[in-house]
Amino acid sequence: MGNRIVARRPKCLGVATLGLLMCISRNAESQFGPEPAPARPVDAKTAAPYDITGYWVSVVTEDWRWRMVTPAKGDYASVPLTTEGRKVTDAWDPAKDEAEGAQCKAYGAPAIMRVPGRIHVTWVDANTMKIEADAGSQVRTLHFGEWKTSGGEPQWQGDSIASWDEMIPSRGGLALVPPSREIGGQKRGTLKVITTHMRPGYLRKNGVPYSANAVLTEYYDLSREASGDTWLWITTVVNDPQYLNQPFITSTHWKKQPDASGWNPTPCAAR
Predict the structure, then answer these.
(1) CA within 13 Å, CB half, 90
(2) For 45-90, what is the HEC assignment?
(3) CA-based Rg of the chain, rounded to a whole angstrom?
């Protein structure tokens, strides 16, 4: 007789359809092993591409005249103010702010990282980061993950939602580009923070305003230099259709300190 091809019968041939499916499932498991368990969610502290905790001191490398001293009334150069925004700035009255107990208008989230001084960054828990600023004795809380807004009355530091991103904005704010430096041999990335629900305040101490509807977006980028110095670069983008014609973009530089030397919490000042 000629050569014959004999098909091997499945072990479960002839059983009911449901039994056949169960058999196939068992055979597949015996060949490939059990399905892996679902991956556990990674908390923000574990997922961090770099560590920004510790003490930092601001290094003023740009906008000295608007950051180191209180600008003159009506000086809003380089801020893309609307007509309404210019009117509010021209009406700035620090005595009125003091009388209303609003000395902290220039220490809200859109401005506090530009105020010269020191910050202290810590983890409150695995998904919550705290940034304390000695200028104005302000405290920011960054929430990672599925956090719901606090509600209630707006506060100077607003509600901040944070995430670890793999990209950072270009200096012109028009596109996203990879970070320019490797972070200590680890994967590169940036800390992105979006803040809303803020009490209206000032972008600059001389009354340049932002409204209650402003949206603040920040990118925190870390670099380590060959000298051993560690720097934190913060790119800040403020969107406010009421007072700004276009996004207001600034960059601020902070140098890592070995300890709390120079830490000096002070109250807000309107002048």
Answers:
(1) 7
(2) HHHCCCCCCEEEEEECCCCHHHHCCCCCCCCCCCCCECHHHHHHHH
(3) 27
- Other C-beta atoms within 10 Å of 28: how many? 11
**Whole-angstrom distance, CA of residue 90 vs CA of residue 23:** 80
Spatial distance between the Cα atoms of 60 and 83, rounded to a whole number of angstroms: 30
What is the pTM for the complete model shown? 0.80
Which pLDDT tens digit goes with each residue over 83-134?
999 999 999 999 999 999 999 999 999 999 999 999 999 999 999 999 999 9
Tell me the residue type at 235.
T
- Any long-range contacts for 158-162 (C-beta under 8 Å, 24+ apart)? 158/108, 158/109, 158/195, 158/196, 158/197, 158/198, 158/199, 158/216, 159/195, 159/196, 159/197, 160/109, 160/193, 160/194, 160/195, 161/193, 161/194, 161/195, 162/44, 162/129, 162/191, 162/192, 162/193, 162/194
Whole-angstrom distance, CA of residue 26 vs CA of residue 83: 73
Q: Which burial class, exposed, middle or buried, applies to 103 when counting CB atoms under 10 A from its CB (0-12, 13-18, 19+)?
A: middle
Q: For residue 87, what are its two tokens? A: 């009117």
Round to whole Å and give the CA distance between 244 and 203: 11
**Which of 53, 103, 108 has its CA nearest to residue 218?**
108
Q: Tell me the residue length of the chain.
A: 271
Beta carbons of 160 and 194 less than 8 angstroms apart: yes
Q: Where are the alpha helices (DSSP H) in the chain?
A: 17-32, 44-47, 64-67, 83-90, 94-99, 109-112
Give the residue from 137, 189, 194, 147 showing the smallest Cα distance to 168. Answer: 189
